[in-house]
Amino acid sequence: MEQMRPSERKVADYILNQPEKAVSQGISAMAAESGISDPTVLRFCRAIGYDGFQDFKLGLAQSIATGGAAIHHGIEPNDRAPALASKICGQTISAINDLARFVDWDQVERATDVLAAAARIEFHGAGASGAVAIDAQHKFFRLNVPTVAYVDPHMQIMSAASLTCGDALVSLSYTGRAREVVNAARLAREREASVVAVTTAGTALAEVASHPICLPLIENTDQYTPMTSRLLQLVVIDILEVGVSLRRGPSLSHHLRRLKDALLQARLDPSSAGN
Fold it and tell me: What CATH number is given for 102-261 in this structure?
């Protein structure tokens, strides 16, 4: 602290007093509440050894999360399956338990209302988030509403251009920097569709969305293959899907029952096992 400029100390004091709030903020919000400028926040991050603001937030999130370790931290080259399972399961459980402390659940409620009323729901994602988008469509199509998932960037843009008021787009990008996903979300907003984004705070996708659901920054996916961050996206999708099914009421129960009955025809009779 003694080596910092007075303006940088303001940022440090702000973060030390409310780290959990700071970790979910964008650079402009943090600067405004600290009473300094955006460049000062960036200068502070570099002064304490980080490459930039997102790199600093990753370190902050890791340090205050239960268990504290970043993904891959503590894993050794000679670790065998039991040790890997213990470490990775522990980090995953810690991240999921911490989800409730970081997410704005009022925003999740509003997103649930929007999806429950939507005439059509699309899911967009790229890379690991594309796999989450496909999983989301697999869950939501059962709710008796037209749904589709697109991972191809050209399809995302063309489909977003066909959305209208009353439709909803769920955009998935943990980094919030997937260019095609962000562009499609921006186009959907121009078409007056609702955009629910499952991302991290202060990103381009969070800023363009009408209903951003911001996850804790716990994993540097530029460096590592997405692991825990992808699971957090899946958990949020499950919460939204169950919430929408509850909003749609008893009539949906009959529809789901028909789907289950139809699915039974695609499965082997348990009595035929071993034959």
Answer: 3.40.50.10490
Task: Please report, for the chain, the start and end positions of each structural domain, with discontinuous segments joined by +.
Answer: 6-64, 102-261
Strand-pair category, 211-215 with 194-200: parallel
Q: Is the pLDDT of residue 154 over 80?
A: yes
Burial label for 246, CB within 10 Å (0-12, 13-18, 19+), is exposed
211 forms bridges with which residues in the sheet? 196
Supply φ then ψ for residue 77, to 5 degrees: -55, -30
Q: Classify domain 6-64 by CATH architecture.
A: Orthogonal Bundle (1.10)
Torsion, Cα 165 247 240 120, to 10 degrees, reads -30
- Residues 6+ away with beta carbon under 8 Å from 78: none
Bridge partners (DSSP) of residue 148 are 122
> For 86-131, what is each residue's pLDDT tens digit?
878 877 887 788 788 788 999 999 999 999 999 999 999 999 999 9
CA 153/CA 272 separation, integer angstroms:
45
Cβ atoms < 10 Å from Cβ of 106: 8
Provide φ and ψ at 269, rounded to 5°.
-65, 130
3-state DSSP assignment of residue 47: helix
pTM: 0.71
The length of the chain in residues reads 275
Give pLDDT, residue 72.
47
* CA–centroid distance for 170 within its chain: 10
DSSP 232-260: HHHHHHHHHHHHHHHHH-HHHHHHHHHHH
